[in-house]
Amino acid sequence: MATVFDLAEYILEKRAEMGEENVSTLKLQKLVYYSQAWNLAWDEKPIFDNDIEAWINGPVVKDLYYHHQGLLTVSAGFFKGNSNALSVDEKETVDAVLEAYGDLDPYSLVSLTHEERPWLDARGDLPKTARSNNVITQESMRDFYVSIQ
Fold this sequence. Notes:
Structural class: mainly alpha
Distance between the termini: 25 Å
Helix content: 40-55%
Order of helices and strands: HEHEEHEHHHEH
Number of domains: 1
Low-confidence stretches: none
Mean pLDDT: 98
Strand order of the largest sheet: 3-2-5
Radius of gyration: 14 Å
């Protein structure tokens, strides 16, 4: 199984190929989330094992956050992940995610995740400005994205 750092590296490499050398860390977190969610929907398995939490600005993988904390942007090579650890099917999923979401700005991605059931359900009754470490379950991601394909 790939790690979240392998996935992040693949995303950063692909965005660099598309001309986006420096990717917002906020945007990267959302692209990681959507890659995991759509892989669960399409292939019924996760790309990585880390939990995704329902933070104020949308879904966040805490381990990834701790590596880029304090930085506004990152580029390929930053996480030292191995993009070749992703399977062909996983790369196809991520490529589709990047095609659908990759050109959106970070705040559009945040807004989009705030409208979707997995983040809303994980947050429960919390105000939008309340901090949270509530986990967005793989089941909720899979069920929601299967329902909208």
